[in-house]
Design a protein that fits this description.
By secondary structure, the protein is of the alpha+beta class. Among the domains are: 4-102, Rossmann fold (3-Layer(aba) Sandwich), CATH 3.40.50.20; 122-176, ATP-grasp fold, A domain (Dna Ligase, domain 1, 2-Layer Sandwich); 309-398, Aldehyde Oxidoreductase, domain 3 (Alpha-Beta Complex). Helices cover 28% and strands 30% of the residues. It contains ten helices and 22 strands. The strands form six sheets. A four-stranded parallel beta sheet has the order 3-2-1-4, sandwiched between helices. A four-stranded antiparallel beta sheet has the order 5-8-6-7, sandwiched between helices. Strands 10-9-12-13 form a four-stranded antiparallel beta sheet. Strand 1, helix 1 (15-26) and strand 2 form a beta-alpha-beta unit. Helix 1 (15-26) packs across helix 8 and helix 5 crosses helix 7 (224-241). It starts with a strand and ends in a 7-residue tail after the last strand. Mean pLDDT is 93; it is low at 37-45.
Length: 398
């Protein structure tokens, strides 16, 4: 019989289809649990189990009846916490619920990092900073949503009000702004030990007032010493949070003082960005989803290495708020040397807002070249060929 893996995910997540494709390649049955309302049609072929992320207890029995399972995975911050609770009740290996809870709360994360002796900025909860510039953040949102830099008291008060409206939560984290270059690390944890799968450079400066991520390239162009420092600091951060088994996505900054950990999420990289990763995993090549499925089943994936060449992804930013009407220049962009794929995920008629309110991108551009610099140049050249059309949204009356 095929082995079976339970995937906990949001009903609209891009990554679900990627995992279905990986399940076919790996030869496992994928069972999906989503936050779909039970009275709505199921868009997935396997009769996805509806589950309330805020109160998953009622769905545990239904999931247990669909078992047994040989492994569990999650995509997204809230699904990861739900998966941690399911894993305990069904006897599956995953990150502990307490660790995922801490990873999903920026204030708790800062406290655990500080206690472990990691470099962290001075931080406060719900209080004005003693000096500027500072960065104001919601406690629980991801992908830089709601993150705003403030350079004076007036900007701080404006940022606080804006973030509280975005998050629907009065609590905010206030911390010193950390200058430096930003990086991301993709990894998998086994019994508390971090295996680094890739280090991403973020070549665009992320200095505010908002922190929209655009380009990731890998392998990193940093020195071996800097990359070793990133890996070692990320391992300490994983231990500080107590993350034990499963995917992690870490963010950090580096300046003359060293590596400053921003966060370690108990999930893989989001959106379609995982497509930028290709691994050599004997006896063949593997995607990130292939690798994570095999890890969830208890297989040894420690031999995985990045495939030859350099790769990059651009998360296409939203130029301004409005209703998406279309895009020109797609064929010109796809003809740029090094571009391997360009996918527009925006739908005509869909309304978009840029950061800090926004929570999505217009699409993704992928590149593969001999060097990270060439991949970055290809992404920028392709993006320059695109002209997005967004019309002004009509004001809400009443």
């Amino acid at each position: 019989m095929k082995k079976r893996v339970l995937l906990v995910a949001a009903k609209t997540g891009y990554q679900v289809r990627e995992f279905y494709g990986a399940a076919d390649r790996v030869g496992v049955d994928l069972v999906l649990a989503t936050d779909r309302c039970h009275v709505l049609d199921d868009p997935w072929a396997d009769r996805a189990t509806p589950i309330k992320f805020a109160d998953p207890g009622a769905a545990i029995a239904a999931l247990a009846a669909r078992g047994p399972f040989d492994g569990i995975l999650a995509v997204g911050d809230q699904p990861a916490f739900v998966a941690s609770e399911i894993a305990v009740r069904l006897g599956l290996h995953f990150h502990a619920a307490d660790a995922v809870h801490a990873a999903n709360d920026k204030f708790l994360t800062r406290g655990r990092f500080h206690k472990a002796g990691l470099r962290v900025p001075a931080y406060l909860l719900d209080s004005a900073p003693p000096s500027y510039p500072c960065v104001v953040k919601p406690l629980h949102l991801s992908a830089s949503r709601g993150v705003i830099r403030a350079d004076n008291a007036r900007e701080f008060e404006q940022a606080r009000a804006r973030i509280q409206k975005i998050a629907g939560d009065p609590d905010i984290l206030v911390e010193d702004f950390i200058p430096g270059r930003e990086f991301a690390l993709e990894g998998v944890v086994t019994s508390g030990r971090l295996q680094t799968l890739a280090i991403f450079d973020k070549p665009d400066p992320l200095d505010g007032p908002y922190f929209e991520e655009t380009i990731y390239t890998t392998p990193s162009r940093e020195t071996p010493e800097t990359q070793a420092a990133i890996r070692a600091t990320a391992q300490k951060a994983v231990k500080a949070l107590g993350l034990g088994h499963g995917a992690v996505h870490a963010e950090m900054r580096i300046n003359s003082s060293g590596v400053w950990m921003l966060e370690v999420a108990a999930r893989p990289i989001g959106g379609l960005c995982a497509r930028v990763l290709q691994f050599q995993l004997p006896p063949s090549y593997a995607t990130l989803e292939d690798l994570l499925l095999r890890h969830a089943l208890g297989e040894d994936v420690s031999s995985a290495t990045l495939a030859p060449g350099a790769r990059g992804v651009m998360m296409i930013p939203i130029p301004h708020a409005g209703i998406f009407r279309g895009v020109d220049g797609l064929e010109d962009a796809r003809r740029i040397p090094g571009i391997t794929a360009l996918e527009i995920t925006a739908k005509e008629g869909q309304e978009f807002e840029p950061l800090p309110e926004g929570a999505s991108y217009l699409g993704f551009i992928f590149a593969c070249s001999e060097t990270p610099t060439e991949a970055e140049c290809a992404l920028r050249s392709a993006h320059s060929r695109l002209q997005f059309h967004l019309s002004q949204a009509l004001p809400v009356v009443g």
